[in-house]
Write a structure and sequence with these properties.
The complex is a heterodimer of chains A (about 120) and B (about 110).
Chain A lengths: L3 E4 L2 E4 L5 E7 L6 E7 L5 E8 L5 E2 L8 E7 L2 E6 L8 E8 L11 E2 L3 E5 L1
Parallel strand pairs in A: 2-11
Antiparallel strand pairs in A: 1-3, 3-8, 4-5, 4-9, 5-6, 7-8, 9-10, 9-11
Chain B lengths: L2 E3 L3 E5 L4 E8 L6 E6 L6 E6 L3 E5 L2 E6 L4 E6 L8 E8 L6 E3 L3 E6 L1
Parallel strand pairs in B: 2-11
Antiparallel strand pairs in B: 1-3, 3-8, 4-5, 4-9, 6-7, 7-8, 9-10, 9-11
Classes of the chains: A mainly beta (about 120), B mainly beta (about 110).
Chain lengths: ~120, ~110
């Protein structure tokens, strides 16, 4: 099956610093990657859609200057949480959608998630 | 906007059958997905429906009625390892984004 990795898996940082999270599709190419945030015992909230070669599309209420997204290649998207604050502490999950091929159902594959704790 | 509803929590007995419902109201529709998520882990894909009807996949089946904005996930022969959260997700028709329901926590008891 398709594999998506995230790095780091856990990060603890001080308030005011910036944190970069990488999302990689390991065995397929993805023109589109999605970034989600998940609070404890809650479902995934879509933050933004990352498109290779173009600007990310942010969901309503998500600050694009706070959460910088770069889709550098067909296998890599990064999320940078700038000037992190304790309220940014959360579980961040990315997913990648393979480039469509004939007859293949369109689905997304999730990374293992990154636990961010801001002190 | 997107509105996807699921029960918050359900309890069932090992070996039994459980049905988890999902209702949705979305601005577009291009498929409904069910995912399983264990605590602290990423969701894993279970099933996909884009046309009305039942899709069966081993112990798991999923049903869709587009006219009613309704789906359910059916789990048969429950095992203890099935204790997890089950997420219903609708893919938007225009942009292929996924929107998730709040998830249903299933507790399987011996």
């Amino acid at each position: 099956g398709a594999v998506v990795s995230q790095h780091p898996s856990r990060v603890i940082c001080k308030s005011g610093t910036s944190v970069k999270i990488e999302c990689r599709s390991l065995d397929f190419q993805a023109t589109t990657m999605f970034w989600y945030r998940q609070f404890p015992k809650k479902s995934l909230m879509l933050m933004a859609t990352s498109n290779e070669g173009s600007k990310a599309t942010y969901e309503q209420g998500v600050e694009k200057d706070k959460f910088l997204i770069n889709h550098a290649s067909l296998t890599l998207s990064t999320l940078t949480v700038t000037s992190a604050h304790p309220e940014d502490s959360s579980f961040y999950i990315c997913s990648a959608r393979p480039i469509e091929t004939s007859g293949r159902k369109i689905e997304q594959f999730f990374g293992p998630g990154t636990r961010l704790t801001v002190l | 906007g997107q509105n996807i509803d699921q029960p918050t929590e359900m309890t069932a007995t090992e070996g039994a059958i459980v049905q988890i419902n999902c209702t949705y109201q979305t601005s577009g529709f291009n498929g409904l997905f069910w995912y399983q998520q264990h605590a602290g882990e990423a969701p894993t894909f279970l099933s996909y429906n884009v046309l009305d009807g039942l899709e069966e996949k081993g112990r798991f089946s999923s049903f869709l009625s587009r006219s009613k904005g309704y789906s359910y996930l059916l789990l048969k022969e429950l095992q203890m390892k099935d204790s997890a959260s089950y997420l219903c997700a609708v893919r938007d028709g225009n942009f292929n984004k996924f929107y998730f329901g709040s998830g249903t926590k299933l507790n399987v008891k011996p």
